[in-house]
Design goal:
single chain; 230 residues
Length: 230
């Protein structure tokens, strides 16, 4: 259901700029995610795991096709559209790593927050699922930070004489504080709260982590549009 919500948002906001292939993959991903949510709600229904794997593959293809740098790299050299600054000299392997880690971070933190709500109606449920998801959030934050740090270092080495404007000087600290530092610290607090079975506190903290992660990723999009890092 988390994948269904995120894929639906991507379809709504990215449909007009998406290629034909991206639209087909997005539509298929939304349909597969919906079917998967129905199957998983039916206890003992077959095909749930296989459908989940197919959904991941289809949405991964849509994620690849939707990236502006990928679209620019596949566009003919004499195309009329102006290439975005972030598309110039961008290694597509790095773009894929950035997109995958971003998707993993947003998916993990949303899933952890939604899992926390389950304990409001089933307080006796095992804490293992929540603790696993909180740990997954921490790993996703670290992986996303590593990719973003590599991208920023690569861009800095390639543009040693560039002076950043006031807006970029504001966005960079915001991106790192809101996107990595605060989520990692708050995730540790959620872990400690969950360990003492204070699941309501853990869920509330995860709400804040979701907000910070979205702010961080939105700021990353601004930096990418300005040509900094990916």
């Amino acid at each position: 259901m988390t994948a269904l919500g995120l894929a639906g948002l991507a379809a709504v906001f990215g449909w007009s700029d998406a290629s034909g292939t991206a639209r087909v993959l997005l539509g298929a991903g939304v349909a597969l995610a919906f079917a998967g949510s129905v199957i998983w709600s039916l206890e003992g229904a077959p095909g749930g795991l296989g459908l989940a794997l197919v959904t991941v593959a289809v949405l991964g293809g849509a994620l690849w096709c939707l990236d502006p740098a990928v679209a620019a790299s596949t566009r003919p050299a004499d195309a009329d559209e102006e290439r975005p600054p972030s598309a110039e000299g961008v290694p597509l392997v790095g773009v894929a790593a950035a997109n995958v880690t971003s998707a993993a971070l947003l998916g993990a933190v949303l899933s952890a927050m939604l899992m926390g709500h389950s304990y409001l109606i089933a307080p006796g449920m095992s804490l293992s699922p929540l603790l696993r998801l909180i740990a997954a959030v921490a790993l996703a934050v670290v992986a996303r930070g590593a990719v973003d740090g590599w991208a920023l270092a690569r861009w800095t080495l390639a543009h040693p004489s560039v002076k950043l404007g006031n807006d970029l000087l504001l966005w960079l600290p915001l991106r790192w504080l809101a996107g990595f530092v605060f989520p990692l610290g708050l995730d540790w607090m959620a872990w400690q709260s969950a360990r003492i079975r204070s699941t309501q506190s853990a869920t509330g903290i995860l709400y804040v982590v979701v907000i910070f992660c979205f702010l961080g990723e939105l700021t990353d999009q601004l930096l990418r549009a300005a040509g900094v890092a990916f």
